[in-house]
Amino acid sequence: PPRSTLFPYTTLFRSAAHPGCTLHEAVQLAVQMKQGGWQPEQVQLFLPSPGSKSTCMYYTGLNPDDMQPVYVPKSREEREMQLALLLYAQPQKQALVRKALQKARREDLIGWGRQYLVPPEGTPPWRQNKAKIKQKNINSQEKNNKPNKPNGYNKTQRGRR
Fold it and tell me: To the nearest 10°, the Cα dihedral for 29, 35, 36, 37?
């Protein structure tokens, strides 16, 4: 096939909750991914597989190379938080990302704008004003008990202009 029809691409593969990875390191990775423009669609949660060093670290809590203790995230909550941090761009994960950032004491990454990892809960300030104006218009219409129609509107003239 001609070279122009080939679309080479790379797929970002990430594993969350790997032995040795703390919540703070997962936050750092999420920030680096955001700054680099990477938004993975899927991330694998670490599962121990037979015969690997990672599995040995997962079950013993020790690095087999030097027998030093290694942090292993074993609670379901922390493993899910690390997974959510790497999937920060997915709206259904944002509540868990906020919880993880608060637990890691990185509330500075929660806010409205591109420099933040996730938005805070609630409606953006620029949408709140529009909602208030819309509600105000609805209330004024109910007071007048008349539909709000533009001047010169005639039902029989609809479509004839």
Answer: 110
- How far does Cα 47 stand from its chain's mean position? 22
What is the rounded distance in angstroms from the CA atom of residue 160 to the CA atom of residue 28?
62
What six digits make up the tokens of 29? 């990775």
User: Percent of the chain, pLDDT > 90?
Assistant: 44
Distance from C-alpha of 79 to C-alpha of 85, rounded to nearest angstrom: 10
Q: How far is the C-alpha of 146 from the C-alpha of 57, rounded, in Å?
A: 72
Summarize pLDDT for 87-142 with one digit per residue, the tens: 999 999 999 999 999 999 999 999 888 888 898 887 777 666 665 666 666 666 66
H/E segment holding residue 44: strand 44-45
CA distance 10 to 27: 23
Residues 6+ apart with CB under 8 A from 7: none
Our measurement of the distance from residue 102's CA atom to the centroid of its chain's CA atoms, rounded to an integer in Å, reads 14
d(CA 33, CA 16): 13
Distance of alpha carbon 67 from alpha carbon 61, whole angstroms = 9
